[in-house]
């Protein structure tokens, strides 16, 4: 089986699975249990200045469930560590002594003045931890005090704080980015400019889970009122993957190592992040929902996957899918896919028909020769993939690409082998002549 | 009813007694299928694919919009689900228990092709409708009084469904019922273990709650009223009389003690407060192949009979009881013998002691041939469950056109008489299912209403 040994920023860990800075890494007791379960590293829950912050004594978490009870989205309003700094430092020191082969990163959050960084960074580094992660993401509570996302949303602040952290640290510095921005490349570039060794993303997304249908208040509340929380869990993975890929494929940030975070639940999620440019992954929600032993499947599944692909290390997987991500304008407009329904596999639920009929291109029959039958009408099919997406039977509907020379029955045009995209399309007022 | 009067009513020997005590009987007569709780219902509802032009909907004789009611259960809108069911089938609660769903909606569920496990449509329907009936949530408000009066003969599923449909339209309905309770076969003909908790009567009460419906009990056609009097006194008449007579075996000694009607026995058992008083023998033979045969056989087992054998004249593929029902019988310890035709009743000391059968063969065209081999089985009770027929009295000598011993109707339930409609088991061409009777009543009510409008 492939060796999952990770060497992110020169920090050694037996596998690329770290627990993210969050409740699971709040104290030594939890972290010991995590390491016993097999996690490669932890980012210790964010520490800040004394006096320590105070958390609410009501609901801190809420979930969005599918009907079968699975929590697919999760949010929290917990602040950074609510324990005195020295307690955390003592435990970090002990932990590193007890678990020398695991990665222990200190997540930090300090206000925007240099003295605070100068005072705290060396003190924390003295515990023996392997590196820092700057929390620019916390979207609730801390951001109201000018820290967390409030700093992460201003590239200049990101750069400034990163510079101070680097100035007083000798260990690697990771900058954790907030997704609550319009373009992640700006704070990512700021991290690069501030001298960061890596970025990690995403932190949680501003969110209100739902309304309480009895009281008609937001849900959950602390007494009569609630406050928005940070959204995470499986549902946020696509948002995170896009941001990771943007950083990985954009000149200026692409050289920056990435620690991928956002909804990693099983090994396939880890493959997504790694292939799209992350060098390791961090996990929180899945552990909070199922316990630390989910790491078994993460390790085993990823290792077998690498074997199947003939890869011997995680590094071989990192970034392999990045070249497949491009701007829309570069997509080949001469490429034609058509949906094909495998009639032997079809269970005749008819959902492909009604979805296509009601909301798309009227390209799937419901009746053929008087019998219930769902067939693609090639003359109408634009290859949109809606039917494939909603079909409950795996691989029953597939997209088949037409070969150059074949005729697209929808347009009656012969498929060209030439690449032609929007940049050169005659309908594009900004079209550039092909050269 | 005392033990001896029950024995007389059921044509059993004076000495036939119960076999088990009350507690053991109660344990035996638990629900055939456990109801779903809220969590189970929501998880099960999530399995529904919300098919386009759903096959389950087409398979339902009453055309319930099954995907829509299941979707409503899934979203926590249980009352909305119940309304969706009841707008097509006002007896959705009993139907959810007695419908052979494995041959109707659940048989065509696309999940069968996917994982050989259909969505539990029957149990989901039961979940929604029972909540509504237990809480008596009414969805339908009658139109203003039309001034029209309709007589309905028989308060079974067809009659009650027709009555409710007419009552919604503002017509006044009088139901003439022979027995002391409404519900028809739901009350008198369904095995006790399928209708625990008095659900059949609760459903009747729920239906009557709409108003505009009066039931006159103890009214027999011919004795207490005539069809001609109804025709002249009412604007329209609906006949939902069911099948009041039992087919005979046509064997010598058929009236000997121990040869009993399955239907009568099931009815007696349903109406008893303490089933341990129900007479039953150690060895029981049931002649027939339908659901009544399964019901009587299983109940005999549950009452303590040691050997219960269903004997069916043709092969398994032609048996009226579904495979699911046959399996349920076998799980309960009932033996099923196929391809044996009743030849004679064996009698000892004036009581039946067994039966002699002739083996048969059914060819691929379904033609039955008698073979020259015979088989004898001992029994101290023989139940006849070979189907029912229309009680000729129920037609009261009228001139209504008939077909194969049943009333001939058009697709709207209209008979050959100008103002008489009919539906349920008493009409020709039906499949003798409760759900079909409900549909017949619903369609007839629409037709009668259209007739009033014209």
Describe it.
By secondary structure, chain A is an alpha/beta fold. Chain A folds into 2 domains: 319 residues, Aldolase class I (TIM Barrel, Alpha-Beta Barrel), CATH 3.20.20.70; 93 residues, Alpha-Beta Plaits (2-Layer Sandwich), CATH 3.30.70. Chain A has 12 helices and 20 strands. Chain A is globular. Chain B has 454 residues and is of the alpha/beta class. Chain B folds into 3 domains: 98 residues, Fumarate Reductase Iron-sulfur Protein, Chain B, domain 2, CATH 1.10.1060.10; 160 residues, FAD/NAD(P)-binding domain (3-Layer(bba) Sandwich), CATH 3.50.50; 138 residues, FAD/NAD(P)-binding domain (3-Layer(bba) Sandwich). In chain B, 34% of the residues lie in helices and 18% in strands. Chain B has 17 helices and 17 strands. In chain B, strands 3-2-1-4-17 form a 5-stranded parallel β-sheet, sandwiched between helices. Chain B has a 5-stranded parallel β-sheet with strand order 6-13-7-8-9. Chain B has a 3-stranded antiparallel β-sheet with strand order 10-11-12, with no helix packed on it. In chain B, helix 3 crosses helix 5, helix 5 packs antiparallel against helix 6 and helix 14 crosses helix 15. At the A-B interface, helix 11 of A face helix 3 and helix 8 of B.
Radius of gyration of chain B from the CA trace? 22 Å
The counted number of beta strands of chain A is 20
Low-confidence stretches of chain B: none
Strand segment count of chain B: 17
> What is the name of the CATH topology of the largest domain in chain B?
FAD/NAD(P)-binding domain
Oligomer: heterodimer
Q: What's the CATH C level of the largest domain in chain B?
A: Alpha Beta
What is the CATH architecture annotation of the largest domain in chain B?
3-Layer(bba) Sandwich
> Main β-sheet of chain A: number of strands, strand sense, barrel status?
8 strands, parallel, barrel
CATH class placement of the largest domain in chain A: Alpha Beta
Helix content of chain B: 25-40%
Question: Helical element count of chain B?
Answer: 17
CATH level-4 homologous superfamily of the largest domain in chain B: FAD/NAD(P)-binding domain
Integer average pLDDT of chain A: 96
Described by the principal axes of the CA atoms, the overall outline of chain A is: globular
Distance between the termini of chain B: 51 Å
- Helix/sheet category of chain B: alpha/beta
Strand content of chain B: 15-25%
Kindly state the mean pLDDT of chain B as a whole number?
Answer: 93
Protein name (chain A): dihydrouracil dehydrogenase (NAD(+))
InterPro entries (chain A): 4Fe4S_Fe-S-bd, 4Fe4S_Fe_S_CS, Aldolase_TIM, Dihydroorotate_DH_cat
Subunit structure (chain A): Heterotetramer of 2 PreA and 2 PreT subunits.
Organism (chain A): Leucothrix arctica
